[in-house]
Design a protein that fits this description.
The structure is a single chain. By secondary structure, this protein is of the alpha+beta class. The chain folds into three domains: about 80 residues; about 110 residues, Immunoglobulin-like (Sandwich); about 90 residues, Immunoglobulin-like, CATH 2.60.40. The chain has a five-stranded mixed sheet with strand order 3-2-1-5-8. A three-stranded mixed sheet has the order 4-10-9. A hairpin with a 4-residue loop joins strand 13 and strand 14. It is elongated and about 95 Å long. The chain starts with 17 loop residues before the first helix and ends with a helix.
Length: about 325
């Protein structure tokens, strides 16, 4: 059980990029150094325990006490902090968005909402939610912000953690060295559904990434069997949600590619058979107090028709 945190999709100890590698080194450095300090203190304690007590007069006792305070309370912590700074500052520099020699890195805007993630690619105008698609092997500058309270961006296998603050944009540079899914999680308590604020990260080979961006710029045509669902969606759901070419709501996750997401409700439901229908009917039970009202006004078969259409929205 003690080793359970040492692996898996969200482990800092399984880094897959330079920023995460630096954080992992720092972790191991701290582990070794504090292990040594623990050993030292525990050995001193054993020695003190086994030794016969000596008798001091008041002045000697003051001297000995002072020596321990200086060594154990000033020197040892001071040295520990110096070692950590000497080790940590160069590693920290690797996480900063410093200018590179070549062309500037790809920019992606990630905004935290209670309780979902908005993801924008300003260069192409592509928007998605609750998932972050990255190219492999490329440095990426994530511009982090919040629309309401303080959230924190953290994909432990790719990099450090950075707060997302209302009214400010902070930049984090990441690079994923391997293709594949990673898991991120809001890392600053942001309300009752904070735990249901998972970010599905997917690193794609450059060609696949470009293909995804290109596919996302084509507005999907609506098949005839979904026309009624779209008519019901546009005036009500469309107030909050955007679907490219259909509606332009900005208060809720962009749904233009919702059918291709690995989950719904930022990690609340896996995207499996029937998940969309279940989410639309039961979202306030599955994720209480989330920002979407109950859809009681809509007949259930309309809701199911909308779910069937949304499932077809894949890039
Ligand atoms: C008042 C605004 C509002 C309205 C109206 C609204 N939604 Fe939502 N919707 C939200 C918010 C906010 C979320 C994010 C909830 C969360 O995960 O915390 C959401 C989430 C969703 C999601 C999950 C997206 C994802 O990636 O996890 C789907 C699907 C969805 N809504 C569909 C609909 C449909 C269909 C309708 C109309 C029947 C609708 N919504 C009406 C605000 C709204
Ligand atoms: Cu949070």
């Amino acid at each position: 059980m003690l080793l359970a945190g040492c692996g898996g999709p969200q482990s800092t100890l399984a880094p897959d990029g330079p920023a995460a590698q630096a954080a992992a080194w720092l972790w191991w450095g701290m582990f070794v150094w504090f292990g040594l300090v623990l050993l030292l203190v525990a050995s001193l304690w054993l020695v003190a325990w086994r030794r016969r007590p000596r008798s001091y007069d008041a002045e000697q006792a003051r001297q000995v006490g002072l020596r321990w305070i200086l060594a154990g309370g000033v020197l040892l912590p001071g040295l520990s902090i110096l070692v950590l700074l000497a080790f940590g500052i160069p590693l920290g520099l690797r996480m900063l968005p410093l200018p590179l020699g070549g062309p500037p890195p790809l920019r992606i805007e990630v905004t935290g909402h209670q309780w979902w993630w908005e993801v924008r690619y300003p260069e192409t105008g592509v928007v998605t939610a609750n998932q972050l698609i990255l190219p492999v092997g490329q440095p990426v500058d994530l511009e982090l912000a919040s629309a309401d309270v303080i959230h924190a961006f953290w994909v432990p296998r790719l990099g450090g953690k950075l707060d997302m603050l209302p009214g400010r944009r902070l930049t984090m540079r990441l690079r994923a060295d391997r293709a594949g899914p990673y898991r991120g999680q809001c890392a600053e308590f942001c309300g009752s559904q904070h735990a249901h604020m998972v970010l599905a990260v997917e690193a794609l080979e450059m060609a696949d990434f470009n293909a995804w961006q290109a596919a996302r710029r084509v507005e999907p045509a609506v098949a005839r069997e979904h026309a009624a669902a779209v008519r019901a969606f546009r005036p009500y759901c469309g107030e909050c949600h955007r679907v490219a070419g259909i509606s332009d709501g900005r208060r809720a996750p962009d749904l233009s590619d919702v059918g291709a997401r690995p989950g719904l409700g930022a990690g609340t439901l896996e995207m499996e058979q029937g998940a969309m229908r279940r989410w639309l009917r039961e979202h306030q039970r599955l994720k209480p107090y989330n920002g979407m009202p109950r859809h009681d006004r809509l007949p259930e078969d309309t809701l199911d028709a909308i779910a069937a259409w949304l499932e077809t929205l894949v890039p």
